[in-house]
TrEMBL record, chains A, B, C, D:
This is Chorismate synthase. Its cofactor is FMNH2. Reduced FMN (FMNH(2)). GO terms for biological process: amino acid biosynthetic process; aromatic amino acid family biosynthetic process; chorismate biosynthetic process. Homotetramer. It catalyses: 5-O-(1-carboxyvinyl)-3-phosphoshikimate = chorismate + phosphate. It comes from Mediterraneibacter hominis. Pathway: Metabolic intermediate biosynthesis; chorismate biosynthesis; chorismate from D-erythrose 4-phosphate and phosphoenolpyruvate: step 7/7. Belongs to the chorismate synthase family.
Length: 371, 371, 371, 371
């Protein structure tokens, strides 16, 4: 079947394998008239580029994007935007031993079962390089959102046991540390922790949080395509994510209604909420408060430590995965989570255009040129 | 837009409002030749029926299902299965005051913003009664899974602070207590807790866990339609769910790779895993181990306590929500989470039929009758 | 798979069998705020009702529609509109002999091959009664179009050899004859022809034409979802249709470019066309001229004459189909073609809302209420 | 919205403009294990390549395809197949004057209305070069069909008034004349006719017929996704097609039932039909007989003759379209129609896998490896 497309109106289709010729994405359904250049995309891609510091894979890729269609004289035309990034540093020899062995924590085994064989080089389709297409699409989505006054921002909330508590956020510090944490002090503790893990040939998990502001109320569809439901799919579809939380997330299970409900009040003529336990969604639609979500990321599966596993021929064996791997994928995944959030919001804003007759009349009243 | 359909091949479309004439569901894409009767559906619906004990709303509904199409002589025909449940006890007067006031924690405000007006009676489309359609469809999905040797079972893991720990599961006790917990002792503590909350005009959250066994490896699509991603959408689309976890869930953020990875080993000629931190998915596909997911449910939003809120005319006001409300929705949501899981698995099993040429040849080799 | 849904935003899902309990439709994605009543739907359904004159089946059905959801206080709410029509006159004995025999021209044989068994009563899912759901949805679509100043009108262009030529159209006469032809004189000749065929236990084909006016230019998507392509699917999906033409249709094959091209000119400040060979579409988008399509309908397959056929056990046999059958289905299919056209136009108008940034800004500039 | 994707399981997404950097296609949902090389694709592309003789545009493009993903060691992997063809001969100066003028018969005007501006170079997205992606996908589909014993073949049935009658088909001659007609003699007459039109700065329409053999009965979904309905969309979505016919097509309108019905009979133990007026479909599903469809193609819109038109500023003007244009597009469209047919059949064969429980059991009985 076809699981490489996300979105109903703003449709993002990624393609490509880790060690194939290229990876890329088609963005279909982008409205015409959006200012868009390769530089806009590149800025986003550079945030997930490998080899930036010792916490990211040393694979050396420029990850330079080329826009092949859908843009004319600096503006989107309304037709599919095809973007491609050539794979350059395809050191296949690093991965040779995994052709015949299933790496623990990786997709190798189910991939082999599903398709009967697999492109074993560097994880193939299940490689993190697939997310290049998501980030390129996320860049486009973010530009649309910006035109509507909506901002999306993701950052690292925790690495292993080191966590930025809600009262210790310094958003200006996010870009100041290599882990993209909104608190340089916690980031330093986390770095020391990662240094230890690197020596121990081990890896760490962490948490990414994402906040969107400026979203009008009523975005999201009331039943299966709830704002939070589609965000859950979008975020959980990023490899290594094992939990998605909205607002208070798992802590609601232990809460009582009188505390969990956010009271409404009028603030300068606008409906507002005193608190935001809901994380910006009510009944699956945006409620006008900031949207808040969190993703729990598992530790990098590729570790140099010896692990027990089996071969594709059904023999017990051991494996040590050498090569170029991040001790933690959280920092590079930050822009991926931000991109998936932006894509989801964009798609739902476009879907919402048809929610009421009033919108139709507004659009078609003026544009009409009929015989 | 159209957010009332879930699934790509096994397509479930629910319809209906809390206080409209009826609620129902269309299941399109159900394979022909499945034995199916109204009694099969009713068994599932009875598990979410209101009025069963003091922890569930006293609204009195028989919730009797009628199958209107898609079944002939006891078997599905391959055409859409239309199922309908008439609403009977529509005591609209209970809800009169909410026409002009937004209830905290409810969808009232974003609904009004989205559509310009709303069916305010009992939550309208955002009512829990919408899940009747999901459960009816879940019953069909469960029958398909059963024919393939796959079982899905959900239960209450926690209510407020009362939680069944992993080493205290007694699955046989699930049906023995009104909270559907796999430990009668914890269930009794939770009941006492709920009794207190009822007196205090308050409500509680909780956690539902769902386990699926017998799923072959390789089910789920590798990118956006990952098994865990679609389960996340499916489960988060149930009202009141604020977090979805797979396997170790949020605890992976604090883990290290050497512990989080599940080592493979051969067990009686079969690829197996020593542990199941992954919760049965790798790279978004089933890995042959039991699938494990959890949903965190917020406390019932409707509480009789006085709450601050605003009117649709933009005036600050207070509201006390009387009427028939569950102090906790977890027990009744158990079968809804189980249904959404069964629906998702069924759809992905059907999607997986086209994963390899070998499947096509197997199916078309025998069936062919061509001129 | 699931082939019972049409449309991407305005989604129409029909269900039901000829001799099941009921037939119906879900319309999901209808914008909120449209005035809608059961009487609006009934008016459309009455145009395809059986038993109106000697050229239509004598099956006696009131075909009374009930709206079960999606409408509140006379307006659509934006949630799924569920409409149902109970089957009343299910004289199954009329159809008993077809359980074991494949009727020539009918779906019996491929249905049996596809699903392994079938609801043989009255054609089951392939019965013309399935179109009740289409017409009910078409009524909703037509109301949306009317609010935007768009009209859709279908009529009978030919019955057997009797055809209304382009220069002989009298649109006011369409409702004046039982065949819905825009020329009473031709209609009378066609009626005489049908009278003869009835005596001969035979049936006739015919042509339906449909014209839509008031459509703005630019509706339709440029590649696979072209306006004419989706109309072709919509119209060809009506049983018995064997050809779909747009504008000059098949006669373009023998034409030359200098004649087939429609010259543009300015008419009162508006871009207009001197001719309309294109039938209102250019490059798959509306061009501002009236949309013109035609459907060629095959003769009713059920005829009382003896025909050669085979049994499901693979024996040669003969069959005479008695019961209540139309000698021509064209007149009753007129409203079905009109409905499918209206549905397609509505869906593409809704899709077109997201075609340019200008639309987004127009809609979201005013509606915003953000914290 | 997103109209660049066709198919539900075998999903084809084309992208690219006439004078952009490249054109291409993503084929998602192709089963794993199909032998596939660039040479397989190139063979198909060469059939629509420009510059092959005097009846096709002299634009000089090698149209060399590169497969960027989804194939590993000569076999499809089940992941998206990305194929790209670089545009080389982008002589934009030829098209300069059309930036400000709407060409009659072209998409210029509705494109401008829909998106507010357009890539005017060579027709942009509405150029015939978009079909390169369709043909590349058609090549993949054809290989799948071949593995299942199904063949699809298209050819030119008529050019202007010169038509190959049903009793004059010589299929072996199709490749022997530059018009791909199954009759060299008629082809010569048609060539003489085209020579005259070229001198007269004019163009011709024509008819393409396509036949598929080996299709099992029961393929196609009974309601909106009928085999013939999806073929109608697929074929009508090819630019310049103005009519689609199945089997007897428009002539059924004048027929009577006793002649139009195809009698069944048993032939060597197999259900067969004496005639094939139906063109291989009954009730929207394949009936085991050869599938027959026809497309009516309008004359090339670009003619060097002077035509009346208007500017984008709303001024009446005249235009003569010089440059490199085919006097007839029928011969180059043959492989496009064949491709769209192959794509549609492949998608419906994959959809049909889930039609009955028997299929599921067949596939999952053997593949299972579960804990």
């Amino acid at each position: 079947m076809s699981g490489s497309t996300f979105g109903k109106i703003f449709r993002v289709t990624t393609w490509g394998e880790s060690h194939g010729a290229a990876v890329g994405v088609i963005v279909d359904g982008c409205p015409a008239g959006l200012s868009l250049s390769e530089a806009d995309i590149q800025t986003f891609l550079d945030r997930r580029k490998p080899g930036q510091n010792k916490y990211t894979t040393r694979r050396s890729e420029a990850d330079t994007v080329e826009i092949l269609s859908g843009v004319f004289e600096g503006y989107t035309t309304g037709t599919p935007i095809s973007m491609v990034v050539r794979n350059k540093d395809q050191r296949s020899r690093d991965y040779g031993n995994i052709a015949a062995t299933y790496r623990p924590g990786h997709a190798d085994y189910p991939f082999q079962e599903k398709y009967g064989f697999r492109d074993y080089r560097g994880g193939g389709r299940s490689s993190g390089r697939e997310t290049i297409g998501r980030v390129a699409a996320g860049a486009v989505a973010s530009l649309i959102l910006r035109e509507l006054g909506i901002t999306v921002k993701a950052y690292t909330k925790s690495i292993g046991p080191y966590k930025v508590e809600a009262n210790a956020y310094h958003f200006s510090e996010i870009e100041e540390n290599p882990l993209f944490m909104p608190n340089n002090e916690v980031a330093q503790q986390a770095q020391a922790y990662l240094d230890t893990l690197i020596k121990e040939l081990n890896s760490s998990g962490g948490t990414i949080e994402c906040i969107a502001k400026g979203l009008p109320a009523g975005i999201g569809e009331p039943v299966f395509d709830k704002l939070d439901a589609l965000l859950a799919q979008a975020v959980m579809s990023v490899g290594a994510v094992k939990a998605v939380e909205i607002g208070d997330g798992i802590s609601v299970a232990a809460a009582v209604g009188s505390e969990n409900n956010d009271p409404f009040f009028m603030d300068k003529g606008k409906v507002s909420k005193r608190t935001n336990h809901s994380g910006g969604t009510l009944g699956g639609m945006s409620d006008g408060s900031p949207l808040v979500l969190r993703a729990s990321i598992k530790p990098t599966s590729s570790i140099a430590r010896k692990q027990h596993t089996v071969t594709i021929d059904g023999q017990d064996t051991e494996i040590s995965i050498h090569g170029r791997h991040d001790p933690v994928i959280v920092p590079r995944a930050v822009v991926v989570i931000e991109s998936m959030t932006a894509i989801t919001l964009t798609d739902l804003l476009l879907q919402n255009l048809s929610s009421k007759m009033k919108h139709l009349k507004k659009v078609y009243a003026e544009d009409k040129n009929v015989e």
